[in-house]
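Regression report. Comparing outputs from two consecutive submissions.

Submission 1:
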Amino acid sequence: MKAVGGGIGLTVGSNAFATRAKAVDSVTVRQNNRDLRGQQERCIISEDLHSALKMTINGQVRVGGQNDETKYESGLYTVTETSLESTTVEMSKDGLDRLGFTNNSSGFVDPNAPHPEYETRRMADKKDEYVEILVDNEEQSDLVACAPHGGWIEYRTDAQSAYVATALDVTEWSCAGYNSGGGAYDRWHITSTAIDRRSFPKLDSISDREFTHAVSFHGFSRSGIVIGGNADNHLKKKVRDKIDSLTNGKYDITLVDSDSPYSGTSSENFVNWLTKDGNGLQIEQGWEARTTDWKTIATAVAKVYRNEIG
């Protein structure tokens, strides 16, 4: 995905993504710990880049290195603001380390998050890419099942969203990212509160649907299962109890409050703003739960929502 080619003032890529908005080449990737300390998924771009990319603040961009200088070809970052620097992307030390940048590396910026031409998990896996998946009849608004970190980012979570959507004939919105030999999380993870509808065309297409319910499947490094989101506790307890029953009490299942880092209660969390009343449900799962029992957990969730949506 290295960008090459000519432009006015900035060098604009004419690579494999030539059919969509162009990447900007000859960018300096610079360290900034003053404004971005510890924020490994965020960056600041210069005003000239902001104008050339025709993007908005708080959206996602791909940043990559030139001449195979970085560990990975490219990865996703959320743009927090602009600077007066010329043709520059700024990141914290942690942000640089995500992809293996060094300070003042030469790189490129692409304004598109999911690949615009690849639409299947199979193609993304084959190409070490990141895709957006939408299965939708453009009418139903009872439930949307989601997995923003599917593929190898948080393994098996998009299989769960697909299972629930198919079982209930409802909408599925998922993203799937891959990287041969590991590194999909480093390249493609964007936290749920930062996901910007303007950076995900298929998400944007359903963002005003005002679903009655939304459920989002996730993975984390802890053991057990954590159920959060702004859905009412009555629904959360139903999901907890059904998962506990179908897995024979195998996992410690916790309902979290708003003080937990896994609470999922923020109004900026996409699973909440996808719903009419801001009442999405978020399920975090440890490795064993989402690999050994991914289908059982998805079945439990489907059974609960079947009763909720009638």
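Submission 2:
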Amino acid sequence: MGIEGATDWREAAASALSWWQEAGVDTVVDEAPRDWTARENATPAKAGPAKQAPLVEEEVPLPATLEAFIDWRFGGDAPESAWGEPVVHVTGNPASPLMIVTDMPESGDCDAGALLTGDAGRLFDRMLAAIGHDRGSVYLVSLCIARPVTGQVPREIEEKLAELARHHVALAAPKRVLLLGQTVSRAILGADAGTGRGRLQPVNYQGGQSEAIATYHPRFLITKPAAKADAWKDLQLLIGGQNQ
């Protein structure tokens, strides 16, 4: 007989078990996979068909009146409410034929409690005066009601903010809308200010239409004074035929 036939399997098995015990192996391993990270007192889940999460979240209808929308927009359900930053409300006359949309509050707007303060605000006031308006005769709103810590509108919520801004325009139903900067232009018109500038463009919504023109933000004009000539052309186009 060979070596295999001379082997005492009982003695070999006992030796192996003794070695495993000394090594700390004291648990029989199942053939089925086991989650060794699960808590010991966890109740095993019963086998059954896996439940799938809904693919699309249920959409909550936005308020259908301007007053109700403003209350909701500056309440705890607004996308920016989770930031913990102060919000800056709309200003001016909601019934004005001219609605102006900025991108976000300036760094000092929260302290002042109004949109477009500081150097950008002073230039904005001069722009309004040049077309025969002041802050009391326009409706000034912001795409983002709180100032992001980065100083830029977060791209991950830009689509939602755009939806809210278009709804805001529809409820206010102004004759014309002035869009300040590329972010606002992209939100309302779906295009950058560079491609949308120089012409009035329709903003369609259920029950009506407004005309919008995109121009440079006062913040940009402070750093690029040469663009003021083009901005003046935009303002002239904005008020052209306004009383027709």
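Expected: both submissions complete independently.
Actual: both completed, but the second showed a warning that disappeared on reload.
Relevant detail on submission 2: The chain has a mean pLDDT of 84.
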